[in-house]
Each structure stands twice: as C-alpha cells, then as structure tokens.
Amino acid sequence: MTPSAATASSRRSAHAPSHARRATPGAAGSRRAALRLVPSRRRGAARSRAVADQTRRLHVLAVVVVALALVAVVIGQALLASGQVRLAALQHELRLEQSANRQNQQTVAALETPSRIVGAAANQLHMVRSSGVTELPYVPLSVPLPTPRVIGAPPSPAFHAPATP
Question: What is the rounded CA–CA span in Å between residue 20 and residue 91?
Fold first, then answer.
C-alpha cells in the first residue's frame, strides 16, 4: 500500500462512525463489507407500539379478570352470611317453639292425672263414686275366642203345624 492510501484509509476510519469502522475488513482493505438494509425507526416504533398496546391490553384483561373474581367472592360471602343470619333466626325461633311445646306437654300431663280427673268429675260434674266396682277380666287380643254354642230357639206359636182332622 502506498503511504497516501494508508493515510486516506486511516482518515476515513477516524471520521467514520463506530459501526462503519467495525465493518471494514481490517488492514487488508481490498475487500469491502457487504451492504445491508437497516430497518427504519418508524417500522420498529410501530411494532414496539403494537407490542406495548397488546401488553397493556393483556394487563388490563388480567386486572379485569382478577377484579371479577374478587367481586364474585364478595357476592358469595355476602350470600353465605345472609344465609347464616337467616339460619340463626330460624334456630332461635325453633328453640322458642320447642320450649312452648315442652310447657304444653307438662300442662297436658298435669291435666291427665287421675286425681285431677276424679276431683273434676266430683266437683264440676257432680258425679258420685259407685259402691261396687266390678273389674273385667283381662282377655288377650292375640288369642281368638272360641266359637259360641248356639241353642235353637223354641218355635213361635204362630208357626204351629196345622192340625190334622
């Protein structure tokens, strides 16, 4: 290489941008680097804006899904709580009715005592005690009664046989 060519190439490399310096093949200098198409900034910006929009939409969709899930959980909890309140009210009402039923059973048991029935019969209905009480014998209901004997009845006078002359 001639000194003037060497100084020209060094001048070119000193003033050339850094990416151009890297593209030169070095000291050989006889071969030039292949040219390539550099994408414009507008296309890259549009792509990155589209990717950013898609990412933003995905984030918004994820937030909406999470918000809807939380609202569903809150609604479920509210329904569960209202059901528990209603159940507690019904259990309280059941306890009150059971207590009233026990009181009624005790009142009926007191009214069914034989001494009270005898006293009410004597005082209010003016009934008297009988002098003799005949008790009926116990008959088991599982054993059938024997067939009664039927004795023929005497013929009635209207059905006399006609007298023969």
Answer: 88
Residues contacting 9, CB < 8 A, separation 6+:
29
Taking every pair of C-alpha atoms in the chain, what is the biggest distance, in angstroms? 193
Burial of 23 (0-12, 13-18, 19+ CB in 10 A): middle
Structure tokens at 128: 């008297």
pLDDT digits (tens, 9 = 90+) for 83-139: 999 999 999 999 999 999 999 999 999 999 999 999 999 999 989 888 888 888 888
Q: Which pair of structure tokens corresponds to residue 80?
A: 């569960």
pLDDT in tens, 19-48: 555 555 455 556 888 888 776 666 556 677
Q: 31: closest CA among 41, 19, 23, 39?
A: 23
